[in-house]
Amino acid sequence: MASLIHQVEQHRSSVRGIEAMTLVSNHHFPRHSHDQLGFGMVAFGKHRSWSNVGQVEASPGDVIMCNPGEMHDGVPLTGTVRGWRIIYFDPALVRRAVEGEIAGWAEVVRPVARDPILAQNFALLFASLTSRQADPLAREENLIRSLVCLFQRHGACRPRCSNGRSASVAKAKRRLDLAPEQPASLGELAELVGVSRFQLLRAFVREIGTTPHAYLIQRRVCVARRLLAAGEMPAQAAISAGFADQSHMTRAFVRYVGITPARFRDAVA
Fold first, then answer.
1. Distance from the first to the final alpha carbon of the chain
2. Would you tell me which of 49, 86, 108, 129 could form a disulfide with 40, CB atoms 3.0–4.6 Å apart?
3. CA distance 231 to 122
């Protein structure tokens, strides 16, 4: 059995609402989503992930993208180590950056793209965000140029909707989204939406891509991520996000984010 290799650098981003990470890992990330827009590039190795358009693979030089709330996972091909850099953008920051250029609610439609122009924009943006010497005007130009390029070349303007989800799944998901810190049971959710527990479980996995419990845990990770970024201590963030204790949060945080809560807080708070 191959040994786990997992090296993560959470960079100190110079812009509020943006996180930047460098990863070298053979870690298998389970299905999860982020509250932010993800925009990255594979440096070496090969990567496979499940997405809304099915299984996709990324190779060195490929750009990888993921919409806020979009379910995905990530595994190394053939178990070898892969390396990548990624930037996460707060959706409100994205809207402000592209307003006037992109009409409506924009989202990316391709999880992976071989696009040298976009890759070059990503490299310039990543460097300006993580360098203490970067000029603020150049950083702002790189930010706007990169996001507009991303949506113009690989995006579409779509209304917000449930993406064809059944009413029962949409209602159960909304309950977990609105109060992830509150305990939940399959029985409670099934009673709320008016179907059997098995019917809800089967429909939830089919339409969301993961079980209600796994979805609840990764939503709690998102809550903890926001609290830690705001400066809250890990122990308190764990309780506020609905975890049983700090160690429970730490295990989930490393599994979904790839870094410990304490290291994440030190880098972004």
1. 37
2. 86
3. 28
